[in-house]
Each structure stands twice: as C-alpha cells, then as structure tokens.
Specification:
Chains A, B: Keywords: ATP-binding, Ligase, Nucleotide-binding, One-carbon metabolism. The structure is a homodimer. By secondary structure, chain A is of the alpha/beta class. Chain A is built from 18 helices and 26 strands. The mean pLDDT of chain A is about 95.
Chain lengths: ~550, ~550
C-alpha cells in the first residue's frame, strides 16, 4: 500500500471557509480579522469580552524523550482534538507557529502528520499572518534605539561592551552570529561587537507568548534588560523608551490565529518560542481564549516531558493560572525500543525485551507528570511495523503503573483512530482527579529551584555550578528576581545533559554552563550544554529546490 | 477656523467593507484575499484573467521640484481620483506603500492629506499586508545563501572582497550601515566587510515593482548580480540557486493591495522602491491591473518631474508598455515663491514677482512633459494664504505656455474641490492627443543616454565622468547591458546636482560619482551626489512617543 505524503494530504484537503470554522467556536465574522479565506485573527475586543465565561478542560500532550524514530506529539494533539469533536465535545487545539528561516535549510514541516494535520500547511511554513515579522521588527527597533541612544550622547551611560540586546532575523544565517557593527566612522556610531539570533530565540517572542494582554505585554517589554552600565546596573528597555512603539508593532501579533484541522475543527496556531532558552509553548492568550470558547483545549509543549511539560507547568501554567486536567504522554513502540538500546536500522524487527527496557523512560515521565498532580494517559501512536506482542508489553507496563496506554491510529485514520484516547481523556477530565501544583514554590531560592528540577525530574544526584554562577543567581535574588521560575536549557534527548544516555539514567550530575536573566519574559534561563541561537544552512539548502512549478504551485518546500 | 489633522480625519472616517470597494471594480469576494475588513489583495487567478480586456486611461501626477513648503502630490492624486469618480468615471488610484522604519524616526505620514486621503492610515504605516517583510525575507535569504555558498567550499569562486549583495532591514539603523560579519571562528564562516540597507533600497523591491508576473519576477531575481569573482566576472543570484525560493517568499507580495480613499473609492497601494537609486513608482502589476478594471487610473511618481516623471516614463512605461494619456503637474503658490527666492519664513506675504520668477521651474517641467509626447495640465493645490493675484499670475504663466493651471481645493473639500481638474483631465485624455515616447531609444549607448537626460531634462551643458566610470559603462555594454535604461540618483530639489539651486538653472554640469548595475531590475543607476541607503534615527526618535493609550488606540505614530 502506498501512503500519501503529509503535503499531498494537506494540499488535497478541502478547506472550510475560516468564518465557518470560527462559527464552531461562536466567533462571528465581525469578531475576526480574516487573512485570506483560510486564516483569521480573533479580535481583541471579542477576547476582552470573554473574561467572565467559564473555562473548558485543559489537556497537555507531551512525550517521552524524543529519538530519531519520531513520536508524533503534534500529530496526536491534532488527532485527539479531532476525536474529541467526533465524540461530541467542542474541542479546540492550540499549537505553536513555525519559524520561517529553518524551512530554507531543511524541508518545512507539516503541523501534525498523515490524517491528523492542521492546514493551510504552505502558509504556515511561509509568512502566515506576519506575527514573526512583527516580532523581528519590534526586536530590531529596540536594537536600533539602543545604538541610537549611545550615538546621541549615551545619557544612560551604557557600557558599550555590555550591550546584551542583540538583533534578530528569521533566517538561518551563520554569518550574522558574531559581527562588529557601527563601523565606517563618526556618522555610523561607536564600533562594538554584537550579533544576530534567529527570531524565535528573541525574548520578545517569549514575552508575546506569556503576556495576558497588551498592558501586560508593554510592561514586560519595558522590563527587559538591554545593557549594563560600568557599575553593572542594568539598563532596561523602558530606559530607552522603546516599549510603547514595540507594543504598537506587536498589537496585531498578540491576536491568536485561527486555522483548521483536516477535519475542519478549530486550531489556534500562535507564538513559537524556542523550547530550550525559552519555554516552548504556544501563547497564553491563545490557550486562555480557547478555554473560554471550547469544552476541551488540547495543547502541547516542546521536546519531551522532562523539559517541555516541566516548563509548561512551572512557567506557563504557574504564570497564567492554568490548571491542566490531563496529561497525554505520547510514546511509540519504535521510540521505546530505541530507548531500550535498539539502533535505528533494527527498528523493524520485533524486540519485546528492548521495548520493556525502554519503557523505563516512559515510566519516569509518568511518575513526573503525576508529581505535578496531573492524571496521565499514554497515547501509543501506532506505526505499521508495531507487533501485537510489543504493544501488549507496552500496555502491560503502563497498567502496572496505574495508567492506561491506548493504541491510536489517527495518523492513518484521522479522528476515528483516536476515539478511544478521546473517551479516556474525557473520563479522566470529568472525574476531576487533577490537583495541579507547580513543582516548586516561588519563594524557593533560584539555586534550590534548579536543584529541585534536577533531582525530582531528571533524577540527578547533584547540580554542578561554579562560584560565579552561584553568585550571579544570588545577585539576581538581591535585585528582586528571586521569585522567578527556572527555564532549563539542556538536551531534549536524555534526562541527563548527555544526549546519548537514553532510557532512565540516574545518579548523574547536571553541570550549569551559564545563566541568563529574561527579566521581561520572567524566568531565569539555566544553560546546561551547547545552545545554538542562530542556525546555519546545510551544504545543500532546501531553498535551492524551492520554487513555483508551471501551475505556479509551490514545490520543494515540504 | 481650526483645521483637523490628517490623522484625525483619517481615524474618524467611516470605512466601507473592502469587499464593497472591490465590487466597484467588479472584483468578487472570491477574487480577493482579505486582510482584515479594510484591506485585501487581489488574487493572481483573477489578474491573469484580465489580459484581454481593454485598458483605461493612464494619468500621471507629478510635480515641480519639491521645496519645504510642500506640494501635495499624493493629495492631488487622491483628490483627482475621487473627483473623477464624482463626475461619473470609474477611477482607481495607484500609489506606493510606506516604509516601516522611518516612522520611528520622524512621525509616520498620511497617504494624501486633508479630505483627500487613503485609509486605513495606521495599518499603512505599520505592517500593512506584509509586502515589505516578504521583500526583507527574500533579500536576506539570498544573503544567507551567498555566505553559505562561500562557507561550504565556494564552488563559484566568489571573491570575498567583492560580494555586492548586502542585507536589508526595514528600520532606520545606522549601526548596521557597515559591519564585519562571520566573526567568531571556523563555524561562523569567513570574516568580511558588508552592511545593511533599508528594505525599500533593495533591488528586490525594484524588481517586485517592475515585474509583470511571477515568471518575470523569478527571471529578474535570477538576473541579479550578487558578487564578482577575482577575474571580475559576475556571480548571479541564479548561480546561488536562490531565485525560486525568493519567488515563493514573494508570491503573495506580488498581488496588489486594495484599500480605499476617504470617499470610498478604490486605491491600489503596492510597492515602494526608493526614488533615487530605484525608479520610485508603485508596482507595474498594480497599475496594469487597475487599467483593466477602471476607466481612469491616477498614479504618481516620486520627487519632482525631472526625476520622478522621467523615470516613470523611461523605466516603468518603457518596460511595461504603458502609454500615459495626461500628466498633471502639481504646483503650489508657496513652492513657486520659494523657487523664486522667497525664504520659508516669508511665504505668508503676497509676492507676485517672486512667484513669476519661480514659475520658470514649472515652465521647464511643462516643456519636459511635452517632450515625452504627454499633454499637460497644472494642478494648483490651494493653500489658505494664496492671494488672487498670485493665482492669476500662475494661471497666466501656464496659459502663455498653452497649458491650463486649475485651482484645486481637494485638501479642504475632497472630490468637490477637484472637479474642474477632473473635467480637464477627461477632456485631454479623451481628445487622444497623447503620443507618448520615451526620451531615448534602447540602443543608444549608456553614456549617451545619461547625456540625453542631463541635457534635455536638466538643461545641463555637460556630464562629467572619469575614465573609470566611462570604462565601467562600456564594460557593461560589452556584457550585453547596453540596452538598459538609466536610473538617475541625484537631489530632488534642483534640476542641478546642487539642492540649493532652485528655479530653472542652466549651463551647469552633472558630475557622476558612481554607477551601479541593477541587472535584475533592469537599469543602470547613475549616482550624482550623496545617496543614503540606510537612514539613522534622530536624537529624539518618534518611537519614544509611540504607544497605546488607555483605550488601546495607537498614539504618537502620526
């Protein structure tokens, strides 16, 4: 049997006019701003009017540690959303927007896969509704204003060597990672070293995704640290008076984008912060808006549950007051076998023993989710080669931990393939068993927060940090930032900081290389390993094959 | 009497739903792509289907040399368009889009003024429909691919010192004018000097505005020169294989944007190339589309007629096969008095003598327009302080040259104030007196083309160019670029290269400082003076006062 590719399925799909999709959530034409006929933003006035409505149930889709075998977290998010609609619940999914730049390096991707996708795929991989361009503009306006401030006399006494606000571009461009700017003489300013990151790494992106409304957005933008003086005191965005203009540039980008699944169910696709140096979830405003409009909101977090779900709970839910009702952990037989030591080339062979061994990874994520007070169900995303014995072993493993592992075939069958999962999610959510609480309290010291995550989520023995890092954390506490949550930046492939240690390692230590304060976003980034904030293009960039065919359709993008 | 500001008038205006504006041009809802309820792009399929329709009349609005007194070229374009509709003609205006970056330096501007404006003003000064962001992305993708090509082995043998493709950002950022990129070691590439221009200065912008369709767009993008080898042979965009992906990024930006005037008449606002290093007109595709949909299309060109109209005729009309029917030269009593030697502070005093003297500037533009075979009418854009004697003197001057100078009050009265002008334009257009021909033939040598413009349009005696420049022009002729038209880049304030020489100077010489080949846009840029392609922000940028008020309305942008 020949399968269709994701892009074939997506491009062949009939789309409902976006106004009809909006109508499913009770959004009238005048309450949305159309972008073409298949995309729309939801008006601010409409969102402001939802405050007093009750909120629906919140379902987080997360996963075991990712492997090259693939897990299908977004696919399951879409499949579950469609299945909830299929069994009569008003459900809406909330996922992140794609970054433009990387599509010209590797091929662009679908949102979901098979018969569980969000469309229009092409627009979502290109400019979409312009949100990321607005973020790029706002970020770079601040950068221009900082250098302009220095140029015209530097009233704030910024130390030229300590300007921490870089520039951004939504492009994979390694040549811009490190530059010297303001060359060419008096009229161009004071030369200094700086560089560009990719737009999704911008603190403005993290802020857009955490802000509850435009006032909160402006406040957070003003709180960002752009530089330090010689006496090490911070210079804030508001000292440069840029936050008002930045807010104006971002006002449309703050409005969630509505699109649809292949089954014409509503999907908010909004925001896309990095999952390492930021928190990696779609916007708070999209999630809270969806909760006011739907009985069920299905959302996901970046990477595996150790990073993605932990940050979703400890940063997004803590700050936005969200209370997740169910956590769905996506696992595949293939990925668990890899976690059990099987090489990618051997995945086609049945190997129940390796699967059982790899289940330790799943088991730890189950325990972790429960430690947040969130009930768990495992979604086994079915692949064609999975054997009955393997699936049974996986289900037995979960059952022994008091959790159901439900086989899902939404990739092949759409919503029909995820009905069992949807029913289980509804049963758990309506039983009201969730008692969500973040992992650590706000008033714990910053270092103790890091230790709590490392020991309780990663099962590490110790956190290693030199004196400079510990002092930096203390200094921030003295400056009033001690209440902030931690945003861990480490490899997504392991509970440890070593990407090759799959399964459920323990007894390791977590070395901290660097800490950064995102004072506007409101978290302390703890970097444990190499973090690339500006990717490069490969030897043969995907862009070389992208173009229009004779029918003027896009080719090569997927 | 207290006048309302342009932004007050614009923000108080009732807007027609854009679908109703489109309907006036016979564009159905399914043939447009809405952006909100007050902006839309016209679908490619619809435009492709218009080929066999007859074209309406084309009216160019141009002006005398600008002075600080202001002329009101766009205001007159809008007022005339509205007035043509008022007298029963189906008319559409075509103007340029505004650049985002400069709005954060000086206040953003209206499109038009008083009761002759295009709306929505706020969106048009912000992200609008994202065209400029798309151009920025396409431009910078090519830049990233050039450095990536060098990084992975430099198969094309690009000379690192001769990469001519810079990067762009739609921001006034002097710190980026000159940079050293690719610093930081092996993984970041080969350090070299480069810089950023503002997006409107991109050759991609000029190409988008000259391309007739997506095929032509892709071909022109491929033709762009990005670098030279050590042997001085050019490396083209197509050698880097970027033109396909760039075309994909630009495919929506190629579709004209429809908005409306205060009187709800259709306006295409599309494209915005620099008026110095580029040709300074709105897009060919918007103009040709409008001509298929309307009886009258009123468009404008940047700067005064010596630069703007000449380039409109010799570049845009020549290349797109457009045949203008009427040229409207906008003049004001105030600006003519300044051309006659009056200081700005003294403009309020009646001064018929200075006005008569200044009319020499108008007279020369009248003669120039006629030399293109285009009949002329002068629009006297009325200002409150103008005296009857001054207006009479101006009208007499024009009459002596066989041209009517018509007093217009569209700024104060909207279309009603420009009915006389509209009737005259119709009379001229319907008499069929136009016999448009470009100033010089394609097969004239490049230097002879420059001399023709300098002598016949600027009334100069000589063109001064050193051997290096003359050799460069010859080299391009040998390479097959001799057929290209010339794009002059000189001060807009004078027929000469000295901005202070107002009126109608003669006997001067035109010194050429630099020539540049825009092989994709299809013209040779001749630079006579300082051309700034990346503005800076002033000491107190407008951005500092921009923000949202308590009602979350934008303040400080205008």
């Amino acid at each position: 049997m020949a399968y269709k590719s994701d892009s074939e399925i997506a491009s062949e799909a009939a789309k409902l006019p976006i106004r009809d999709v909006a109508a499913k959530l009770g959004i009238a034409v005048e309450d949305m701003l159309p972008y073409g006929h298949d995309k729309a933003k939801i008006s601010r006035q409409f969102i402001d009017g939802l405050t007093d409505r009750p909120s629906g149930k919140l379902v987080l889709v997360t996963a075991i540690n990712p492997t090259p075998a693939g897990e299908g977290k977004t696919t399951t998010t879409v499949g579950l959303g469609d299945a909830l609609n299929r069994i009569g619940k008003r459900a809406c999914i909330c996922i992140r927007e794609a970054s433009l730049g990387p599509n010209f390096g590797m091929k662009g991707g679908a949102a979901g896969g098979g018969y569980a996708q969000v469309i229009p795929m092409e627009d979502m991989n290109l400019h979409f509704t312009g949100d990321f361009h607005a973020i790029t503009s706002a970020h770079n306006l601040l950068a221009a204003m900082v250098d302009n401030h220095i140029y015209w006399g530097n009233e704030q006494q910024i130390d030229l060597r300590r300007v921490v606000w870089r520039r951004v571009v939504d492009m994979n461009d390694r040549a811009l990672r490190q530059i010297t700017c303001s060359l060419g003489g008096v009229t161009n300013g004071f030369p200094r070293e700086t560089g560009f990151d990719i737009t999704v790494a911008s603190e403005v992106m993290a802020i857009l995704c955490l802000a509850t409304d435009l006032d909160d957005l402006g406040r957070r933008l003003g709180d960002m640290i752009v530089a330090y003086r010689r006496d090490r005191t911070p210079v804030y965005c508001r000292d440069i008076k840029a936050e008002g203009a930045m807010t104006v540039l971002l006002k449309d980008a703050m409005q969630p984008n509505l699109v649809q699944t292949l089954e014409h169910n509503p999907a908010f696709v909004h925001g896309g912060p990095f999952a390492n140096i930021a928190h990696g979830c779609n916007s708070v405003i999209a999630t809270t808006t969806a909760l006011k409009l739907a009985d069920y909101v299905v959302t996901e977090a970046g990477f595996g549950a150790d990073l993605g779900a932990e940050k979703f709970f400890d940063i997004k839910c803590r700050k936005a007051g969200l209370k997740p009702d169910v956590a769905v952990i996506v696992a595949t037989v293939r990925a668990l076998k890899m976690n059990g030591g099987v090489a990618k080339a051997d995945l086609a062979d049945e190997n129940v023993e390796a699967l059982r061994k790899g289940c330790a990874n799943l088991g730890r994520h189950i325990a972790n989710m429960k430690s947040f007070g969130v009930p768990v169900v495992v979604a086994v995303n079915h692949f064609a080669g999975d054997t009955e014995a393997e699936i049974q072993a996986l289900q037995d493993y979960a059952k022994a931990r008091g959790v159901e592992a439900i086989l899902c075939r939404h990739w092949a069958d759409g919503s029909e393939g995820a009905v069992d999962l949807a029913q289980k999610v509804v049963q758990i959510a309506e039983s009201g068993g969730a008692e969500f609480a973040p992992l650590y309290p706000d008033d714990l010291s910053l270092f103790a927060k890091i230790e709590t995550i490392a020991k309780r989520i990663y099962y590490a023995d110790a956190v290693l940090a030199d004196t400079a890092i510990r002092n930096q954390l203390k200094e921030w506490e003295d400056q009033g930032y001690g209440h902030l949550p931690i945003c861990m930046a480490k490899t997504q492939y392991s509970f440890t900081t070593d990407p090759d240690r799959r399964g459920a390692p323990e007894g390791h230590s977590v070395p901290i290389r660097e800490v950064r304060l995102a004072a506007g976003a409101g978290f302390v980034v703890v970097i444990c390993g190499e973090i690339m904030t500006m990717p490069g293009l490969p030897r043969q960039p995907a862009a070389e094959a992208i173009g229009l065919n004779v029918a003027r359709e896009v080719v090569g993008l997927f």
